[in-house]
Amino acid sequence: MVRYKNRYITIQVSSKKEKFANKPLNLKPQAVHEAIQKKVLEMYGDYGIAAIKAGFSAKYCNAHTRIALIKIRHGPHMFLLKALPKINDVGGNHVNVKIMYIGATMKHCFIFIKNYQREKLQSMWKEMKNDNERKELEKALMTMDPAMKDLL
């Protein structure tokens, strides 16, 4: 049997418009997936799309922290790394995409995301007025897919 190596890329998708800078972004895994495929097709053509197609998926998106996790095979991940910063439209929103972390396992990416979300939560707590708002914000930020909770 052959073991396929994967790369997991953690990205941050931020809005270019300042009035939407602090509001949750309507971020869906399918929209991220389509935006990436569109940019790879634009930059590398059919060869790039064929290279990334096997084993490529957007795994996790959090609208509050604007973080997404992408899985891709090792090798063609270089196409993705060059295309990601050039993406400026995800699901009809004008955005900037920043690569935050590249890991060989999903567990390490989830640990990075958890730590990042905890830091983001602490910075947002300063703006909250009461404990109920803080608990709601913590619930929104720290929710992860069931598969993610098993790994942590």
From TrEMBL:
One Pfam annotation reads RNase_P_Rpp14
**Which residue spans adopt a coiled-coil conformation according to this UniProt entry?**
none
According to its UniProt entry, the protein's GO biological process terms are:
rRNA processing; tRNA 5'-leader removal
Q: Does the keyword Coiled coil apply?
A: no
Record carries keyword rRNA processing? yes
SUPFAM superfamilies xref list: Rnp2-like
According to the UniProt entry, its GO molecular function terms are: ribonuclease P RNA binding
Q: Which GO terms describe its cellular component?
A: nucleolus; ribonuclease P complex
Q: What does this protein do?
A: Component of ribonuclease P, a protein complex that generates mature tRNA molecules by cleaving their 5'-ends.
The record's PANTHER family line, in alphabetical order, gives: POP5 HOMOLOG, RIBONUCLEASE P_MRP SUBUNIT
> What name does UniProt use for this protein?
Ribonuclease P/MRP protein subunit POP5
Organism of this sequence: Nasonia vitripennis (Parasitic wasp)
